[in-house]
Amino acid sequence: MTFRPDPGRLPAVFLDRDGTIIEDVGYLRHLDQIVFFPWSIDAIRALNRAGLPVVVITNQSGIARGILTEAFVDETHRRIAEQVAAGAARIDAYYYCPHHPQGKVEPYVQACDCRKPGCGMIERASRDLGLDPSRSFVVGDTWLDVGAARAAGARSILVRKRTTTRDELPPVPSWPPGLDADAIVDNLAAAASWILTHVDRA
Length: 202
Fold this sequence. Notes:
Blueprint: E1 13-15, H1 40-49, E2 54-59, H2 70-86, E3 93-97, H3 120-129, E4 137-140, H4 143-152, E5 155-159, E6 183-185, H5 188-198
């Protein structure tokens, strides 16, 4: 789908969840594994104050693999919403993809357009919430997020991954080769700052 600028629709910020807002623990299976990066809620609050809808889009293939349930993912998002609200911030909506073509739980075993780098979650949120992808931003810590942004016609910000053994910022080679992000930053706070200086409010 090709999106054209629409002044009647809002620019928004689509955020990956694990590794962007909260620490990536692999398959998050217990609510006590939810650990926010120290800057995440402040960054979300800054986007809220700028009038930008904030939407989480997250691949959750653990559902298709039989590791998680949709009910648990919904519970996780309720807990995240509570903690974000306690910091006077807001995430406007949560979308997740439960599918994986190599899963084992029907009906989630399928190739789909919602799993990033597909842009199905962005398309759905844009229809539901009146958003304009062509004026929006996608922030995430993998090239799957950049690919989803490109597929939707949005701008992309890649958050560098940190190693678990040293506090360092390793190189971020493009994957697949030739895929470009509009910006590569250290964390969500830096991404929010970049967005607030590049947002088109026309």
